[in-house]
Every structure is written in structure tokens, then in C-alpha cells.
Amino acid sequence: MDGQDRESSGGILRQLLLARNHSKAAHGRVPQLPLLPEQTPAQAAATAIERTAETLYHLPVQTESVTLNGVSLAEIPELLPDGALLMILQGKGEETGVMALCREAVAALIEMQTCVRVTARPVPNRRLTRGDALMCAEFANSLLAELATELGGLDGYSDWGDFRYATFLDDPRPLQLILDDGLFRSLTCRLAFGQDQVRQSTIFLALPRAASQPVAPSDPEPVAQPRSEPAPQALAGGGDSVSSADLAASVRDVPVDLFAMLCRRKITLGELRSLTEGAIISLPRVTLSDVTLELTSGEVLAGGKLGEAEGYHAIRLHDPAALVDDMTGSPSILPGDESASGLMPEAISAALPVDLDSPNIFLADAGEDHDLDITGIAPVNAG
Fold this sequence. Notes:
This protein is an alpha+beta fold. It has helices at residues 2-26, 41-57, 76-79, 103-114, 130-151, 175-178, 232-236, 244-252, 269-273, 320-328, 346-351; strands at 61-72, 85-90, 96-101, 164-169, 183-193, 199-208, 256-267, 291-295, 300-309, 312-317, 372-382. The chain contains eleven helices and eleven strands. Keywords: Cell membrane, Chemotaxis, Flagellar rotation, Membrane.
């Protein structure tokens, strides 16, 4: 009896739908299809992750939850999965972000590339290496591109497609030194890899919030090109002349020794003679953002922030113009601009990293009586 009721009910509903569509078509109107619900940002991110895994490796993925949020730099280390693979992402300019894959996710991606299937074997408790990061870099780059496609219309996510894998980080502690302080857009996804969902995994992503792009002028004014002057030999008009282009090319090939300077400390000769192996020398209180790049003669070329890249110590140079803008909020004035020499405050002039014309107090005349200068320097080779 119940089956007959369901049959007749289903038949009546079909007849009503057919009658409605027929009446609309008779009046020249097309029957309307049911509207699909609008996709949420979390559903769009889940679609991007599943599409990436399917397109690259035909890897089955079941997304359990996706959380999109805004976080600060101090909160990022607390959100990383335990023992995760950390990949530093580089965007346009100096923007950096981080993607963290848990051990289960790394095992699933490597198994699909080596065994063409996801196994249920326990993940070995080993230290993740740069080789693991290179095996997962393709997945990271493709995922960023898919997320940019799905989330590009949302505020703060428009530039996610510009980020790519840059380097591997084996320790989360320097993360706050590598990333710039500010607001980040974060994505935390809990999912299961494999046909039988054997790899319960977590993916975490944090990228700087996209800033609004300035509108470029429609008709930019032409910039006057400086007029090249002839070489001194050509002006003299005698002998074999050397063009300025040849001279510039030769000068560019001259090697230059650079030194990264974090701080300086003066000690007396008596203190120097008392130094022994294992002695501790106290240094001034400095920050990693106060590093200067200097020549062997002591002239300061630029300032920067000490960090790490590709397993080596590295310095991210500061822009002199941006430094002035941050301090004053006014248009930048670079050293050497004679027309603005009277407008630059003393504090701003002292803070600029370009300081070629100022004497170095640590390069005093050898004949003067002064304390011995112990300088901690790290050589940097530049071709």
C-alpha cells in the first residue's frame, strides 16, 4: 500500500511539473531551472585542493573542513601542524608566505609519485629534508594557482597566484624573521588522501593580505633621457680612444668584496690579551634588521635584515626611498640631490643606508691613540 502511495504521489508530482513547464512554454516563456546555491569561500578552496590533487597525480581526496581566517605574524607558529614540512613562498617583490604540509600529506604526495598509490604504512619519524620539499613543490605551486582561480574575486586573495615555492625551512623558529610583520590570510584544510581515506592530513597556508593596487595614469609623461657624454679620450682627440660602453663593461667585471656588519665593539689591548678559548664577549644590543652591507674600506652601501635563504645566511636589503617614506610619510629624498639638501632633516639623513660620503669613525688614523676595534664581519663575495 505504501509503495502504491509513493508511486501515485511521484506520478502526480511529475504531471504537475510537466503541466507547469507546458503552460510556460505555451506562453513563450522558457521553463526555469532550479538555481544552484552560491559557493562559499571554504567550498571554493576545497574544490581547488581536490582539483589540484586529481589533475597532478589522480590522487583521491576527501575534504573534511576548510577554515579561512586572518592571522598576525605572531599567531602563525601556533597554527603549524606538528613536525610539518615548511615551504617558504615568494610573491611579487619582497612578499613572502609559508605553506605547511603535515607528515601524512607529505607521505601521500611522495607515495603517489613513486608507488602510484597511497598506502597505509606508518609514516617514519624522521626529519623532513629539502628533497621532500622539492617533491612537494609542484603540488604547492599548482595549489596556489587553483586557489587564485577560485578565490581571486574575494578581498585579500587576489594575488595568491603570484606566489611560488622559493625555499625549504627545516626549523620553524626563524619563521618570524623571514616573514614580514603584518596581517596574513590563512587557510587550514583537514582532508584525507587515498581511495580508502588512509592519510588523515592537514595543510596550512599563510600569505600576506593583498594590498590595493594604485591606478596607473592613462597618459604617462615621457621621461627625459640623460644625454651620454663622450669618453675623456675622445674629447682629447688624440691616441686610441676607449668608448664609455667598453669602460663600463670592464668595470662591471671587477670583483668587489662586501662585508655584512651586524655590530661593532671596542675593547682595550689588555682585554684583548686576556682573551682565551671559550671566552664570551658581550655585544651591544642590536636587532637583525640593523645589518649593514659595507666595502672593505668601511663605506656603508646599504642596510638590510639578516635571515636565511636556501640554507645560507642572507640579507634582504632595505629600499632607501621606502625607509624615508616610513619615517616621515613624505616623498623620499635620496642622498646626492643637491636641490633638496637643505630640506632633509638630520635624523632622516642619518638613517639612510646609503652613506658613501660620510667618514667611518672606525677607520681612524693609525697614528692616533685609541682603543683597539674588534669588528665582527661576515664576508660576502660579489662578482
